[in-house]
């Protein structure tokens, strides 16, 4: 254990590593506030002028006017929201159902609180063939009252379109959707920006982890220190274990601390009740995973941690194979960024999904982030067997962690 603590101390005292870790911690805290800074609220002052506030002041105004508690989206709530939206369209909209020339304070008072639920109604009543959503004016109170029945019908239609040749995938989606809590819950002020910044924090931690881990073995290869260390009593096997475990534990703790700090600050600013908000209101009414916002945050954090450990383990293996820091960094960064480039440039959805799952960093990018797969409809298929992409990402990461640890230890110990 003495050797392990000395290795940890050496890593933490290395200026390059300490600067990266400190930078990640500072950015994690800063990015927890950024989603709040984008919140806007408009109201009419005593002089009749429209005043727009942002950030924490806007959140405070929203909670004062809309309440600081969860709202149950009952059929009655949906019907009233639809009528309110249609009245606003009659006064400020055009024939296409688009609002224009509406005062900012009226929009904040009348439209902003119900915009998401009206959009979810339009979504589930979209045309089953063209996918086009109807205008809010085309919906009726009866449609609002049948919203939850239509949600299940719409999911069946979508899964038939997305997974026509894969009945197992369709059955999985419908089975999971049966567990979704209805009626949905909504919390004033919460936006999708908080999810976007959580994925960005995970990406930054993973990127920093690659920079830290890439030179773990190659640095001593390059300087020649490894030749001396291998001659010591605790060289090879012991040293391989010490370096592997020290780097992985430090980076795992960095991830946990950074993400915990980010989520605590973000949820404290928006309100912890917001973690109970239904994902189906934020993204898609037919998101079939039975999760609320808090569940999404925890599942994304767990998947991020497992993927990070897989990335670190694979980076250590690359480091054990390379003779110089430059080559180790170049190869590690290429492998880290490759799945994100493939996901953006690939014309094949199936190929992009496999790359996202098989690469250790496949779900740590921006557009290909794990969180965005949770409300998608993508499955991996092997014959008649189908698995939902988020489940595949987690399962494959669990396999890759010991695989790359073993490859790293074998590569380092056998190196001549």
Features of this protein?
two-stranded antiparallel sheet, mainly alpha, 416 residues, 2 domains, 6 strands
Tell me the layout of helices and strands.
Elements: H1 2-13, H2 15-37, E1 40-44, E2 50-54, H3 55-66, E3 71-73, H4 75-92, H5 104-111, H6 115-124, H7 141-145, H8 147-162, H9 167-177, E4 184-186, H10 193-213, H11 218-223, H12 225-229, H13 237-270, H14 279-282, H15 293-321, H16 325-345, H17 349-358, E5 379-382, E6 385-388, H18 389-414
Antiparallel strand pairs: 1-2, 3-4, 5-6
Helix pairs in contact: 1-13, 2-10, 2-13, 4-6, 8-9, 10-13, 10-15, 13-15, 13-18, 15-16, 15-18, 16-17, 17-18
Please characterize this protein's 3D structure.
The chain is mostly helical and 416 residues long. It folds into 2 domains: 2-36 and 191-414, no CATH class; 62-186, no CATH class. It has 18 helices and 6 strands. The strands form 3 sheets. It has a two-stranded antiparallel ribbon. The protein has a two-stranded antiparallel ribbon with strand order 3-4. Strands 5-6 form a two-stranded antiparallel ribbon. It is globular and about 85 Å long. The mean pLDDT is 89.
Rg computed from alpha carbons, rounded to a whole number of angstroms: 25 Å
> In one word, what is the shape?
globular
Class by alpha and beta content: mainly alpha
Q: What's the SSE pattern?
A: HHEEHEHHHHHHEHHHHHHHHEEH
Identify low-pLDDT runs: none
Cα distance, first to last residue? 26 Å
Percentage of β-strand residues: 5-15%
Please state how the strands of the largest beta sheet are arranged side by side: 1-2
